[in-house]
Amino acid sequence: MKPISLLWGLRSYCASHGCLYCYFGTVSEHREQMPTAPGVLSHLSPNDLTTADVLAFAETLHDSPVGRVFLAGGEPLLWKPIIRLIEVLKAGGLEVVVCTSGVALNRPDLREPLIELGVDAVSVSLDSADPVHNDQWRPPRRGGDGWEAVVSGISALIAARGPGPRPKVGVYSVITRRNLADIVALPELAASLGCDYAVPQPIALDPDHRLAADLSLTAEHLPELRQHFDDLYAAELPLVLPERSYASQIASAVARPTDLVPGCFGGDTLFFVQPDGTVWDCPSSLKIAATPPGRHRSIKGAKARELFPAPTGCGSDCALFSVDCVNMWPLTGFPVLAPTGPEVPRA
Ligand SMILES: C[S@@+](CC[C@H](N)C(=O)[O-])C[C@H]1O[C@@H](n2cnc3c(N)ncnc32)[C@H](O)[C@@H]1O
Ligand code: SF4
């Protein structure tokens, strides 16, 4: 297995949902004021790469050390050339994981090609076993595209796959101070639907985000968080969860704003590509803000093997471990596929 994973935010616009905490901000706030700082995402960004630029770069991945690509967004499945892109990636021998809001999986014209092309995994975002909670924080842009449509999309994909090995199907849920019980309840729901994996991920918001006081986890939530993770691993559900150490990593990220990671995989075996083509060592806003201008690079017109040299496997020490990046551990040690880069211990 080639060692590098790319988390590729393909498109800025999300025609699917208007999640209130989304990394891309909200359309209404950015209509008033567009962010201008490097790396800050917006659903309204006018700078997304053209389809030709995306496909041209994708064609170069096959002879690079990149072995796995996570296609995210915005909403990747509602971007028309997505199936063509997956074709190119699979023809190049890459593993492909599609990260989706899940509603599009109800469409046979999108669902069937994912199976036929051998997509390796589909991670569906669903925050709560409680439809009301989910749709409050992940409101769909169209009526009828809420919790029930996501669950039916998951079920439709699992049914269409049948006993075949691919794609693995899993659920990613954003955990806030308001849905700590979903650390257990969501994987239980995922198991009942026949999913292969479940990943509870802590919300990452800037301290001055308008929802931080409502949603962010703090030290006072840690006893409950730890208890729910203990209950989750004790439940021995018939699906794969992140490494047991992930729960402690989340707790330590919540307890301390930043911390040291010796030999982090960011910039060695993991990279983040934005919709405008910019390449970062890691999606963490802290790490992006600390990136010197000389290391601002783009996939536009570039060849993957020039952007991503063979990794050292040692990474580099990073003092910016935080809730912004703790979600990268279950990405590099992706639970249902073979490991790519070396597992990096936390300090
Ligand atoms: C940005 S979305 C893109 C893919 C797709 N639209 C989706 O919702 O799955 C990728 C993942 O990031 C999560 N996410 C978005 N904003 C977040 C935040 N502020 N903190 C933690 N996770 C977040 C989403 O719930 C989703 O699981
Ligand atoms: S569906 Fe995904 S990209 Fe769209 S708003 Fe929600 S988290 Fe953001």
From TrEMBL:
Gene3D superfamilies: Aldolase class I. The lineage of its organism: Bacteria, Bacillati, Actinomycetota, Actinomycetes, Kitasatosporales. Residues 1-248 form the Radical SAM core domain. This is Radical SAM protein. It comes from the Bacteria. Keywords: Iron, Iron-sulfur, Metal-binding, S-adenosyl-L-methionine. It comes from Kitasatospora paranensis. Transmembrane segments: none annotated. PROSITE patterns: RADICAL_SAM (PS51918).
